[in-house]
Amino acid sequence: MDQARVIVSFGADSIIETADGQLHRALTRRRTGRAIAGDRVDWGGQPPHQVVIERIQPRRNTLVRTNYRGQERPLAANLDQLVVVCAPQPAPDQRLVDRYLVLATSLNVDPVVVINKSDRLDDHDASAVQAALAGAHARACPIHTVSCATGDGLEALTAALADRTSLLVGQSGVGKSSLINALVPDRQARTQAISEASGQGRHTTTETTLYPLPGGGDLVDSPGVRILRLAHLSRDVIESGFPDIAPYADACEFRDCEHDREPGCAVRAAVDQGRIDAGRVASLQELLAERNAG
Ligand SMILES: Nc1nc2c(ncn2[C@@H]2O[C@H](COP(=O)(O)OP(=O)(O)OP(=O)(O)O)[C@@H](O)[C@H]2O)c(=O)[nH]1
Ligand SMILES: [Mg+2]
Ligand SMILES: [Zn+2]
Description:
One of its GO terms (molecular function) is GTP binding. Its cofactor is Zn(2+). Residues 68-228 form the CP-type G domain. Zn(2+) binds at residues 252, 257, 259, 265. By secondary structure, the chain is of the alpha/beta class. The protein folds into three domains: 2-56, CATH 2.40.50.140; 62-225, Rossmann fold (3-Layer(aba) Sandwich), CATH 3.40.50.300; 235-292, Ribonucleotide Reductase Protein R1, domain 1, CATH 1.10.40.50. It is built from ten helices and 13 strands. The chain has a six-stranded mixed β-sheet. A five-stranded mixed β-barrel has the order 1-2-3-5-4. It is globular, with a radius of gyration of 21 Å. It starts with a strand and ends with a helix. It binds guanosine-5'-triphosphate (GTP), magnesium ion and zinc ion (ZN). Guanosine-5'-triphosphate binds next to helix 5.
């Protein structure tokens, strides 16, 4: 059986890249289950027609989107790294950054932060960005400052992405698409080739798509993770996304302490003493409350 990588999936149909670098439209059988971007699969058939995915190899991890009804839909598999993109404009949102850091923990992948638009970063903006990144500092996560406009920092970022599958996340307007355009020089041709293989026109760009990087590794662009619901995560997973707070939380009098006004709350005490960032605690409380609400 030959092996391939899933580039993008539309339900029962996927586009796979075979070992020779060709893109083919492939069908999954009902019993095989649905393939998603990043899957490694065994395939058979006679390209370009009747290509069939025979088996989806076990996934190291699965990025899942949960909708407002709590229904889960898998989007991408086998990720190594989560790239959290922020910029001076739109102003960074600490709660969102902290959510992405918890997402990285839940997937068991390393977070990397990119501060884009360095060409627009004055001192005032820089301190606002750093404040929103308190969680990244607490987790000693690598931070790359880049500009898609000038090319500043892109070489070092390329090195950090080499040979790994990285998911790009971040607020609308921070420059995720600009980064893909800067890092994947043949993106246009690639999108065209995907459209041709799928026979579905421009539809593909709205789906979670894997882009191979010329220096090795892949970037995953997933419009589906913009609204990030983490209500399905356990308290333990959420708390392990906050290593700066966890030692204090362990010392709270109540195991289910919400770090609000409970007596014997070691987290509140640590905030009052300036030992931990109040914004981080607010992020943790928000995630715990969401989870409790079901
Ligand atoms: N000055 C400057 N502008 C940039 C840079 N990178 C991107 N932009 C601009 O920022 C705007 C948003 O960039 P996009 O790449 O579309 O942002 P995005 O994150 O893909 O946004 P969504 O697709 O809505 O999630 C565009 O007008 C870009 O030209 C940069 O390094 N410097
Ligand atoms: Mg975009
Ligand atoms: Zn507490």
